[in-house]
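S1.2 Input.
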Amino acid sequence: MRKLLPSLVLAVLSLAGASCQKNADPVPYVAPVATYEMYSSVSYPTSRESGGISHSPKDLLGRAAWENGRITLYLSSGNLPVNQVRFMMPSSFPGKLGAFVSESAQAPVVDEVQTTYTLSYDLTPTTRLSRIHRGRDCTTEGSVVITAYDGSRNLISGSYEITFKNVADPYAGLLPNLPVRNSVVVVGGEFTNLPIKP
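S1.3 Output.
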């Protein structure tokens, strides 16, 4: 009986160890929640008028996808006025992080981001107007700054601010009887853990 006791103790301990190992299974991966911020403004240099909006984070949407071998980011607001930005990152990304300058009509630069900004608003209950600003057609300033990129989990984080200079007033449709004024349009924001569709 004395000889059996140590054997029983060892058997119980080995079972307990196996039980502990079973409970230590890896926790399933849960993707972090994506968060967004977005603001926009329009100013009129000749009259010093200006106005803008900062969207509630709960009204913002985002996604990213590989298109023609490049990562393209889409960010938009779900409420009026609807702001939508599209950034096609340069082919050098995701090889490096940091600031990537927006394309501009002034002159091409290395590693520039193809930028499109669309502002939409309702003129009447049945008529919606959209004004599209493309970096290649405008004089722009600004950049997209990528602060984090997780290729294994397909997540990207960063910020952006783009200024479109000397563009036609995007709200001119609200004042059809007045001359169209020149304006400066700015759109900016942040995104964290934006999912990239493989």
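S1.4 Remarks. The first helix runs from residue 4 to 23.
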